[in-house]
Amino acid sequence: MEPQKKHITWEVVTHVHREHTADWYWTVGVCTLAAAGASVYFQNYMLALILVLGMGSIVVLSARGPREHTVRIDRRGVSLDGTFYPFANVHSFWVDVAEDEDGVAHDGYRPHLFLTTGAMLMPHVMIPLDNAAHALEVRDHLREFLEEQPQTPQFGENIAEILGF
Predict the structure, then answer these.
(1) Is 28 left (phi over 0), alpha (psi -120 to 50) or beta?
(2) Whether residues 46 and 30 fall in one domain
(3) What is the pLDDT of residues 53-85, one digit of tens each?
């Protein structure tokens, strides 16, 4: 049995960028302003402020496009652009890669690494992987340190994907 690598490093973009039309921006703006207007009507000013600030954030982030991140997995934990998740704080992981019944991975599917952490604000981390071969390499490396438990994308991640964020 060959020894494991001391670390695995790769570059990943946050998401697949989709160009939005002017109609998309108008729709987001009108829906947000209607919801904020209803909040003001019912004297819920804080909700109106949160809706407007959230809409502004979404518009700016969707216009900016994806960023490139550096991911590093070593013997101490997982690092994503300086944010370090030590193995002591990670409960489990899952590498989501499309496999057939024989366990052979398919390259047409973009795999993801899911981490379940003890963090209060972001207990579920989803990191894209390059391809199926890379995903299996990451899985083998992480099995040394963490428990493997099946996980799926969270509700918010699915909604963001559908809406093109």
Answers:
(1) alpha
(2) yes
(3) 999 988 888 887 777 888 899 999 998 888 888
Residues 44 and 71 in one domain: no
What does the CA dihedral 25, 31, 37, 41 come to, rounded to 10 degrees? Answer: -170
* Amino acid making up residue 158: N
Query: What are the helix (H) ranges across 80-154?
Result: 132-142
Integer Cα distance of 117 and 78 in angstroms = 11
pTM of the complete model: 0.67
Tell me which amino acid residue 22 is: A
Using CB atoms within 10 Å of the CB of residue 22, give its burial: 0 to 12 exposed, 13 to 18 middle, 19+ buried. Answer: exposed
Q: Tally helices (H) and strands (E) across the chain.
A: 4, 8
CA distance readout (Å), 20 to 67, 105, 115: 17, 33, 30
**Is the distance from CB of 134 to CB of 71 less than 8 angstroms?**
no
For residues 49 and 76, state if they share a domain.
no
Residue 128's domain comprises 8-14+67-163
